[in-house]
Specification:
5-stranded parallel beta sheet; 16% strand
């Protein structure tokens, strides 16, 4: 029996060994029999790619993000989109809290001093900031935002949050004005959905409001923040510090951050735990099986 053609874009490394029952197709292709595709949400497929695949009916995203897809266009074309909802949100929240601790307690600077042989007692680095009692603003209160809030509450932080609409089920105070939240907060964690509606959400005004003693953490998507404005504020001292796991360009150029102070940078670790990757791969495989079997798909994205 002929294997069904499956577009895999971008290449997914060792995971592709688990796709042995499919005929893997790479982009660009002139094949017209591709009915399903597997992608990473922030890469996705362009509308032009979708147009070039007349039989395409299903796109399976590895992970929760779908920002590389034009969902309205997918709906117009009758293409179902699935993703890995509620698989890695706890892991991403762990990274957010880790970056916050690293910036408030100067982990990055401390390691640099130790490895550089410049550790001078009694204090290797300047006095750090206690977490308990600090004001935390969370931008975006979806699954990741809620997981961050639960962890931050255990550390004794005061929490307020911003999003497009209030959620009565969330016990923490809702702030509908983002600059006002930034002005109140000592730490601002960005956990907003990364798509066209949030591009540039954290702009120069928000960064200015957070201020010279404020810390900005981003585990959302790089383009949610005006990265040029962020770098300028860090260099001038207008922003106190930043912990970033995501960047506008990935991999981000090393030279871009060479002389940017008060930062802890990680290479999009996010949801990359063994457990989340396994669960995500199982979700992809099950969605593919269901699609070709004509069964109801898991975790459909609402267009």
């Amino acid at each position: 029996m002929t294997k069904p053609a499956l577009l895999v874009h971008p290449p997914l490394g060792l995971f592709e060994m688990r796709l042995a029952e499919y005929d893997i197709v790479r982009w660009p292709t002139d094949r017209t029999d591709v009915r399903a595709a597997v992608t990473i949400g922030h890469v996705g497929l362009t509308n032009e790619m979708i147009d070039a695949l007349p039989e395409l009916k299903c796109i399976v995203c590895f992970g929760v993000g779908v920002d590389g897809l034009d969902l309205a266009y997918c709906a117009k074309r009758g293409v179902a989109v699935t993703h890995g909802r509620h698989i890695n949100h706890e892991d991403v929240a762990d990274v957010a809290i880790g970056l916050m601790i690293a910036r408030l307690r100067f982990f990055t600077e401390g390691e640099r001093v130790l490895r550089g042989g410049t550790w001078t007692p009694p204090l290797a680095v300047p006095p750090q900031k206690r977490l308990r009692g600090r004001k935390l603003g969370i931008v975006g209160m979806g699954a990741i935002g809620e997981a961050i809030a639960a962890r931050a509450e255990a550390f004794g932080l005061e929490i307020k949050w911003y999003g497009p609409r209030a959620k009565p089920a969330i016990k923490h105070a809702y702030e509908p004005d983002l600059p006002k939240l930034a002005d109140w907060a000592e730490v601002l964690i960005v956990a907003a959905r990364g798509d066209k509606t949030t591009e540039g959400l954290i702009n120069a005004d928000v960064i200015k409001a957070l201020g010279s003693d404020g810390v900005l953490i981003n585990i959302s998507r790089g383009n949610v923040i005006d990265e040029d404005a962020l770098i300028a504020a860090l260099k001038s001292g207008a922003l106190g510090g930043a912990g970033l796991d995501v960047f506008v360009e990935e991999p981000t150029p090393v030279s871009r951050w060479a002389d940017v102070p008060n930062t802890t940078l990680t290479p999009h670790l996010g949801g990359g735990t063994r457990e989340a990757l396994w669960e995500g791969s199982q979700n992809v495989l099950e969605n593919l099986r269901r699609f070709y079997a004509g069964e109801e798909l898991l975790s459909l994205v609402e267009h």
